[in-house]
């Protein structure tokens, strides 16, 4: 009787009452068959060993041994079931021993059989009823786990077992339990199963408040470090998935940037967030190498850290800026490119960027000609505008520096990627954060989890704060195209060691020769804002001219350009010396520093200074940039401020988000 199994697949073979009753009686028959079998064994034993002392000893030893085996075999079941089984075996074997020696009808033996046997059988029937029918609901197979963690009477369905992943449907008690109860119990479930907190996730059913899937990943497959060996799809399209790592069950960690109208997936911007030591640099390298290995995308990249981590890939970028005024110009160029690119896409019949837009427009369905013939226009590659260590840019330009780009760029075939350690409201405006639908969230301070991940993902079991900087590369990825059930599943990016540097350099060289170059519309918009600060990546793969880097915090240092030695730079040894002018022979010390130019000459010198700034690729200026220039020409800083405002009114300058800072409008396009 102990340990009998109810057939879960049993059912009436037909619709008769007899079949129905037989089906309902099946789970309760085994104990009664055991009772009948015990009586038969006792009668046969008495016929074989009546009044046999040796048989009595053997039967007694066998009874003790059988009871002990039953107790030992039940170590993995509940204590109640183990005790019930052992007592049942002990009673049955003792009655058989007595019946064999004294006879089944001797003394009280037959009475014990007729009263005790049915009582034992009925006790097992009661156990079956209690186990399989609690208030009319199917029984739970959790072994009491849910009751321990505060989810008593919740039911677990048939689990789906995959390699290193168990998914069990969970049905909560109607009217008494909700998804929030499961979310609060996840830590206790992990404790009961002796697993880390991140190994337990809950994916609620969007159509029900009491149903969902409990996901358990018993083994951390991310503990092994996997080094980056190269891009996953060299020569593919940016519309194909980017592989940035792997999930904890071994599945690839994928990310899409452009939208797909057929799949109903929107284009996206990406936030890469993680504290110091969380592996944010490696995560960015995984993403950038995947982007750079595609043939229909260009990258504008800003890094205030002077490309400390990204130097091997710099040659494959279309535009590289090292922070400061260069980044301010890049932001303005992206803003200018959005309407230009949107206009081109609309004119050619594209509601959003698709890979066909990057090809030469030889399809009459995508033409800008009024006669319906193919226009043959150059294609427009996808554009990735990447701002690394964006907190630096946000401090300089304001917390809403990227708001306009984030809200408008997706329809123009542009993805904005913002990387910073702490995307809190005091660094990034809430409007910008809301416009970044995708996130790669690495380890962080537990208090910062809500800045990186949506609340629903955290409730489902995602906790990057549990890693901090102790598990570099561990991350959660939330992005269109990924199954929402995957959002709370941790992944890990691949590691970039020194062995990866030569491979990255070869990838950058490949991108120079095989990657896309900026289309005329995008390049024109960038040049119209940045002037010579934007030169683009040549189609021939030739190394482009490096931009002059100026540290705006130390304007008195000699960085070349405007503050270089102009007297020596343009000397013509054949030219005649100028005629002496009044003030040239004034004493150097104790007197004025030199003659003061007249109003017209001063304005001409100021215009020349703007040209010099523009030639050096420095497109953002302010009064502090003219300090040495003022000393040299005996002009005051208020005079320069007045001329800057006049130049803005004339269209030579344009105001920026920062007070006292002006963007130079390239001379060819000045109003």
Overview of the structural elements:
The chain has helices at residues 17-25, 29-48, 53-73, 79-102, 109-132, 145-148, 179-192, 280-292, 325-347, 390-397, 403-408, 430-434, 449-452, 455-459, 501-514, 520-530, 566-569, 599-615, 627-633, 637-650; strands spanning 155-156, 160-162, 165-171, 200-204, 211-216, 242-247, 252-255, 270-273, 297-302, 319-321, 382-387, 414-420, 438-442, 474-478, 491-493, 620-621, 653-655, 662-664. The protein is an alpha/beta fold and 671 residues long. The chain folds into 4 domains: 17-132; 145-216, Gyrase A, domain 2, CATH 3.30.1360; 242-530, P-loop containing nucleotide triphosphate hydrolases (Rossmann fold), CATH 3.40.50; 561-669, Winged helix-like DNA-binding domain superfamily/Winged helix DNA-binding domain (Arc Repressor Mutant, subunit A), CATH 1.10.10.10. The strands form 3 sheets. A 10-stranded mixed sheet has the order 7-6-15-14-13-8-12-11-9-10. Strands 1, 2, 3, 4 and 5 form a 5-stranded antiparallel sheet that branches. Strands 16-18-17 form a 3-stranded antiparallel sheet. A hairpin with a 6-residue loop joins strand 17 and strand 18. It is elongated. The chain starts with 16 loop residues before the first helix and ends in a 7-residue tail after the last strand.
Summed up, what is this model?
It contains 20 helices and 18 strands. It has helices spanning 17-25, 29-48, 53-73, 79-102, 109-132, 145-148, 179-192, 280-292, 325-347, 390-397, 403-408, 430-434, 449-452, 455-459, 501-514, 520-530, 566-569, 599-615, 627-633, 637-650; strands at residues 155-156, 160-162, 165-171, 200-204, 211-216, 242-247, 252-255, 270-273, 297-302, 319-321, 382-387, 414-420, 438-442, 474-478, 491-493, 620-621, 653-655, 662-664.
